[in-house]
Amino acid sequence: MRQQRSRSDASPNETTTDISESIKDSTDGSTRGGFFSGWFAQPSETGETRDDDASSDYSSSFDSGEDDNLRSQTESYETDDYDSAEDDDSLIEFDRGMRARHGQACKYMRSGKFAKALKKFEAILAAILERFGENHHRVGAALHNVGIANLRAGKLDDAMDAIEEAVRIRKLTLGQDDPKVADSLVELGIVLLSLKEYSDSLEVFMEALEMREAEADDIVLPEQIKESSLKIAKVLNNIGCVNFENSKYKSALEAFEDAIEMQKKALGDVSPFSFNNPATKPGFLTMASTMCNKGYIDLEQENYKAAVNTFTESIKIQKLLLGADNKLVLSTLDNLGYAQTMYGSTDKGLTTYKELLSNQEKSYGESQSDCARTMRNIIFLQLTNKDYDSALKMLCSLEDIQVEVAGDKSSKELAETRKLMGQVNYQVLKYPTTAGCGVFTCNIGDTDEDIDLTNWKPDKPKNGSKMSGHRVTC
Predict the structure, then answer these.
(1) Spatial distance between the Cα atoms of 179 and 183, rounded to a whole number of angstroms
(2) pLDDT at position 274
(3) For the ranges 3-7, 222-226, 403-407, 467-471, which has the lowest average pLDDT?
(4) Mapped to the 3 state alphabet, what secondary structure does 178-203 carry?
(5) Contacts of 221 (CB under 8 A, 6+ apart)
(6) Contact at 8 Å (CB) between 376 and 356?
(7) Is 422 helix (H, G, I), strand (E, B) or coil?
(8) Residues with Cβ < 8 Å from 121, sequence gap 6 or more?
(9) For 32, phi and psi rounded to 5 degrees?
(10) Helices (H) and strands (E) in the chain — how many of each?
(11) How far apart are CA 259 and CA 243, in angstroms?
């Protein structure tokens, strides 16, 4: 059985609050202990206004080891039915302030300002603790959001503390089988996986899966069945991620395939008309990410035909919903080009890599080294097809990038490029055409009929599986 961690497990270089520490409450002098010891002394914030985007969705990604396309969301601010007119006035004012803070926190999350978002969520938690005490369902929601903000900020130990406590309080106040308990379990599993605690992560996800499936047994309305199926699929995807990161590819593949099957059944066929309802877009994007995860397994198992089919299906969805320079689009094109190349579909691989290069050149986020790697892959396929003119032009472009990166210094990559340029130039001169890159003097050894492309063969992209959190409205 997994043992709950404490802040004492954190790195000695991290600044944390000992959860066993007790401090005096500033309002009534009582001693507060345990996890919440540091929250009751936090000052309240004032003067905040309701943000216009407070009702918008917050969508972000959390990749194992990378910042890519997984959905980790915050809980919407929860309210209660009021018991009396006296309570009504005070609680309405309280909730108005909390919603304003929550909306601002969500805005910070959407813009990647996680430290500011965390400060807002912590202020909400402190205020809710002061008003309702520790064992209240709103405290569970507030802790859940604090945990996600820490998770997105990379503070995994703090995220662990908050989300574990959110699970405990939600079980206590809402019941062991409440869907919100499963929501927090999913996020806890993501934190554990990020910490490479695979067995603990798998145990948590299996508990969440059991709860999701039990919840589905009581649902009869079609729209609720669809939503329930997508939630189950997300947990299955995460189970696949645990097994993928732990190199258990067979189990990972089974989980991803089960998830995709459920997603397709719930969402239907993919077409431009599939997205007339904006609410369906996140579901399709999550399915596209799950398909990528399956494709990574196909590549690991060298099942290149299956990989081509999987990535082709995924990129179709992505192109309908995302910009050409989106990181997920660029990554999927890279994997698709590699799978096509390894499967022997040279022309298709060449087309895919050219599209990738075009997108990379338009993206401010892509480095010259990314473009250079794609150029190398294009050159490999052009020379495989004996298209020497096109290869020589691409080699010239690659040389320009390498010279700019290396400056006055020589590099192994630049020397390798210039050697290949000489070999290719010989082939161009042997069968004259308009190469468009000038004429190079052939060196001794450049006159071989066959060009050795061993060092130019595309490398398998480095992939990290994409996890899925639950999706709610801020």
Answers:
(1) 6
(2) 78
(3) 3-7
(4) CHHHHHHHHHHHHHHHHCCCHHHHHH
(5) none
(6) no
(7) helix
(8) 74, 105, 142, 145, 146, 149
(9) -110, 135
(10) 15, 2
(11) 14
Is residue 83 a contact partner of residue 74, using CB atoms and an 8 Å limit? no
Q: At a CB cut-off of 8 Å and minimum separation 6, what does 432 contact?
A: none
Residue 124's pLDDT is what?
A: 96
Give the whole-angstrom CA distance, residue 315 versus residue 325. Answer: 13
Q: Which of 308, 288, 284, 313 is nearest to 298 (CA)?
A: 308
**Neighbouring residues of 20: CB distance < 8 A, sequence distance ≥ 6:** 6, 33, 34, 37
- The sign of the torsion formed by the CA atoms of 52, 54, 59, 60 equals positive
- Render pLDDT for 48-97 as a digit per residue (tens, 0 to 9): 322 333 222 222 333 433 333 333 456 666 655 434 444 678 889 999 99
Q: Tokens in use for 20?
A: 């066993």
d(Cα 350, Cα 159) in Å, to the nearest integer?
Answer: 44
Among the listed residues 59, 46, 24, the one whose alpha carbon sits nearest the alpha carbon of residue 123: 46
User: Which residues, other chains included, contact 7 with Cβ-Cβ below 8 Å and sequence gap of 6+?
Assistant: 16, 17, 18, 19, 157, 158, 161
Handedness of CA 152, 157, 158, 164 (dihedral sign): positive
Q: What pairs with residue 31 in β-bridges?
A: 24
Q: Report the C-alpha gap between 137 and 96 in whole angstroms.
A: 18
CA distance 298 to 296: 5
Pair of tokens at residue 279: 């609410």
Query: Which structure tokens are listed for 443?
Result: 């060196």
CB 417 within 8 A of CB 399: yes
Half-sphere exposure of 9 (CA within 13 A, CB side): 12
* Angle, vertex CA 455, rays to CA 452 and CA 456, nearest 5: 85
- Residue 376 three-state SS: helix
Q: How far apart are the first and last CA of the chain?
A: 34
Contact 141, 180 (CB under 8 A): yes
391-398 contacts, C-beta under 8 A, 24 or more apart: 391/424, 392/421, 392/424, 392/425, 392/428, 392/435, 392/436, 392/437, 393/435, 393/436, 393/437, 395/420, 395/421, 395/424, 395/437, 396/421, 396/437, 398/372
Residue 390 vs residues 79, 424, 427, 430, 452: alpha-carbon distances, Å: 64, 10, 12, 15, 18
Q: How far is CA 259 from CA 29, 87, 174, 235, 287, in A?
A: 52, 46, 28, 8, 8
pLDDT digits (tens, 9 = 90+) for 327-379: 999 999 999 999 999 999 999 999 999 999 999 998 866 678 899 999 999 99
DSSP state of 31: E
